[in-house]
Design goal:
Strand order of the largest sheet: 1-2-4-6-8-10-12-14
Strand content: 35-45%
Number of domains: 2
Number of helices: 1
Distance between the termini: 47 Å
Number of strands: 15
């Protein structure tokens, strides 16, 4: 299995090199022990980057181990996905359709279990940053984000178990920042939950969930322009 995986990764590297020669696309993978991995990368357009350290965009892609499944599709030009996707039974899907979109992805410390991550971006100049389990156990998370528009910024920090999040954004120049810590729920009771829908432009949303014992849940629906919403749940 290890031999087959290395062969597959080498094939991806060769494809990335060929695309870089003809259209300025780049692919870089440093896989370590990626158990039972399924990796699929499609890049169209030009100057798209998956995680090539030669582009100096940050950490190159890594992909560590356990069950794993990763699909990354980029269309358009100048799109970038930086790296990590480290452990657990993860399933990750990233689709970017447009130009100059940036996803700086981290999927937590090695051994972070289960997890579902979906990200779909349609538009230009959108930025998404996801950090899971960088300071605390964040196992069994679910995360969904669907952005349609341009110049949106979504940053999520998850350091709590059994979180379940969904972000739906339609519009431009929206900024969303969320942080979830503490209150480690169970698979039966659930953990922190954020269900957010934003329709409009130039809106700002900030959510902090840091309950010590009980998980917090909130549904946020914003329709309009130039609003500011700050929520703290203890």
């Amino acid at each position: 299995m290890k031999h087959k995986l290395i062969t597959f990764v080498m094939a991806l590297l060769l494809v990335g090199s060929a695309m870089a020669d003809s259209g300025g696309n780049s692919v870089y993978i440093d896989q370590t022990n990626a158990d039972r991995s399924s990796v699929s990368i499609t890049q169209t357009g030009s100057n798209n980057n998956f995680g090539d350290s030669n582009f100096n965009t940050g950490a190159p892609f890594v992909i560590e181990g356990n069950s794993m499944n990763l699909t990354a599709t980029q269309n358009g030009m100048n799109n970038s996905i930086t790296g990590n996707f480290i452990g657990g039974n993860s399933t990750t899907t990233i689709l970017q359709d447009g130009n100059t979109n940036n996803t700086n992805l981290n999927m937590g410390n090695f051994g972070t279990s289960t997890g579902v991550y979906n990200l779909s971006v349609t538009g230009d100049n959108n930025n998404t940053h996801l950090n899971i389990g960088t300071t605390r156990d964040a196992s069994n998370y679910k995360y969904g984000a669907y952005l349609t528009g341009s110049t949106n910024n979504l940053t999520s920090n998850i350091n709590s178990k059994n979180t379940d999040n969904m972000f739906l954004v339609t519009g431009s120049t929206n900024t969303i920042t969320t942080t979830q810590i503490g209150a480690n729920g169970t698979t039966l009771t659930g953990g922190h939950n954020i269900d957010s829908t934003i329709i409009g432009s130039s809106n700002t949303l900030s959510v902090l969930q840091d309950g010590v014992t009980n998980p917090n849940s909130i549904a946020i629906h914003v329709t309009g322009n130039s609003t500011t919403t700050n929520i703290i749940q203890h």
